[in-house]
């Protein structure tokens, strides 16, 4: 069963930091580009960051310079380090794995991030 399990969400004040983790089942991680999306209340889900199987990264303009995506292939885990958080970063954050062999996308259950004073 392909599965993604996210952790690390929570509440933080503006300017604070959080690190999200997404652990993947071994069958999908090694052959998948990984990424994070987020969805704020009343808004569509949007791209945040992505990382290829060989470590190439991309970011939404709104998070460049503040967020860093990385992957640990030994642990089948992808991370999203979020610094200098702003209230507009408040959303449910979803991890996804896009298989480069089957084209299938697997989603995590989502984790809430709230930035508020």
Structural notes for this entry:
The chain is built from 1 helix and 11 strands; from the N terminus they run βββαββββββββ. It has about 120 residues and is mostly beta strands. The strands form 2 sheets. Strands 2, 4, 5, 6, 9, 10 and 11 form a 7-stranded mixed β-sheet that branches. β4 and β5 form a beta hairpin. The chain starts with a strand and ends with a strand. The model has no long low-confidence stretch (mean pLDDT about 95).
Task: Summarize this entry quickly.
The protein is mainly beta.
Write out key terms for the chains shown.
single chain, 117 residues, mainly beta, 11 strands
Characterize the largest beta sheet: strand count, sense, and whether it forms a barrel.
7 strands, mixed
Question: Shape from CA axes?
Answer: globular
The pLDDT mean sits at 94
Rg estimate, integer Å: 13 Å
Helix and strand arrangement:
Blueprint: E1 4-7, E2 10-12, E3 18-24, H1 26-29, E4 32-39, E5 46-51, E6 57-59, E7 67-72, E8 77-82, E9 91-99, E10 105-107, E11 111-115
Parallel strand pairs: 2-11
Antiparallel strand pairs: 1-3, 3-8, 4-5, 4-9, 5-6, 7-8, 9-10, 9-11
């Amino acid at each position: 069963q392909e599965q993604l399990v996210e952790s690390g969400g929570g509440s933080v004040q503006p300017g604070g930091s959080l690190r999200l983790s997404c652990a993947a089942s071994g069958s999908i991680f090694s052959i998948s580009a990984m990424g994070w999306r987020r969805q704020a209340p009343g808004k569509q889900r949007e791209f945040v960051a992505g990382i290829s199987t060989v470590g190439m990264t991309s970011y939404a303009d709104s998070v460049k310079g503040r967020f860093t995506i990385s992957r640990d292939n030994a642990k089948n885990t992808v991370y999203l380090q979020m610094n200098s958080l702003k209230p507009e970063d408040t959303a449910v954050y979803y991890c996804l794995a896009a298989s480069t062999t089957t084209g299938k996308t697997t989603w995590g259950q989502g984790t809430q991030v709230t930035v508020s004073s």
